[in-house]
Amino acid sequence: MECTLIGAPLQIGAGQLGCEMGPSALRIAGLRAALAELGHSVRDVGNLAPRSFDEIPHPNAAVHHLGETIAWVEALSSAAYEHSANGMPIFLGGDHAISAGTVPGLARRAAELARPLFVLWLDAHTDFHSLETTASGNLHGTPVAYYTSQAGFDGYFPTLEHAVPTENVCMIGIRSVDTAEQAAIRRTGITVHDMRVIDEHGVAVLVRNFIEKVKAANGILHVSFDVDFLDPDIAPAVGTTVPGGATYREAHLIMEMLHDSNLVTSLDIVELNPFLDERGKTAKLLVDLVASLMGKRVMDRPTLAG
Length: 306
Hints:
The chain has one domain: Ureohydrolase domain (Arginase, Chain A), CATH 3.40.800.10. The chain is an alpha/beta fold. Helix 3 (66-83) packs parallel to helix 4, helix 7 crosses helix 8 and helix 8 (203-216) packs parallel to helix 9. An eight-stranded parallel sheet has the order 2-1-3-8-7-4-5-6, with helices on both faces. The chain has helices at residues 22-28, 31-37, 66-83, 99-112, 143-147, 179-185, 195-201, 203-216, 248-261, 281-293; strands at residues 2-8, 41-47, 88-93, 117-122, 169-174, 191-194, 220-226, 264-270. The chain contains ten helices and eight strands.
C-alpha cells in the first residue's frame, strides 16, 4: 500500500500544550521505517500549516482559538481529500480537533467513490460538544458533533458538503462523557461502547460487529485513534488521562482485526504529548500499533530483552 504521512501539529484545540510535538515524536519513534519494513511505500509530506487567520469571537466566552481552529479545519479537509486519492493518508496529530478537518475531507472523497464513510472512534471521550455547549472551550471536544452535522457550528466552521451519518460512527473505549454530550448523543444513531461493554463482551465482538456493518454497506473505514483510548499505565503521554483504558493486548487485537478486514483507508493518530512521555514509551507503542494495523502479526514480534 502507498502510505502518506501528514503532520498536523495543532495543539490549540486542547488545554495543555505539547501536542504540536506529536508528529515529530512519531517520526523519531520510527513510524516510516516500521511501515517500510512491512513492504509499504511511504511518503512523508511534512507538516501542514493553516492559512493566515483573524481571531473570531463567539457568544460562548469559553471558546478560544476559534479562528485558528477554523483555518486548520480548512487545511486538513483539503489535505485529506487530496491525499486520499491514491493510497492511505495517515495524519499525525496534534490534538483531536484535527478530525474536524480530516473526516469531512475523507467524506468528500467517499462520496465521489459512491461509497459511505464509516468512522471508528477509539477514544476515552465522545468529543460531541458544540461550540455552544463546551464548558472548557477546548475545541478538541467538538469534532464528532461537527462532522455529523449537529447544531451549533453554523456561521463558524465551514459548511459541510458531506456529513457522516451518525449511524456510521462507532465509539469504543468511552469512559468520560459530559452531561451535555450524553444528552446530545442519545438523540443520535452513534454506537457507543464504553469500558463496561468491553469488560462484559470483549473488544473482538464489538469490532467484528462494526466491521460487518461496514462490509454490508460496501463502506470505507476511517480510524481515529486518541492516545487516551489506552490505559495511562501503558501510554502516559496524553494531557487527558482517564484510568481504566484499553490494554496493550486489546489495542493490538483491534488493530489486527482492522487489518484483516481490508476496509481501513485512512488514520488519525492524535493527542500524543511527548512532553509527558517516559523515554518515548508512548510514541513507540503507537508506532507498534500502527504497524499492527498495517499488517504486522504476533508471530513477527521478537522477544524484548528486559
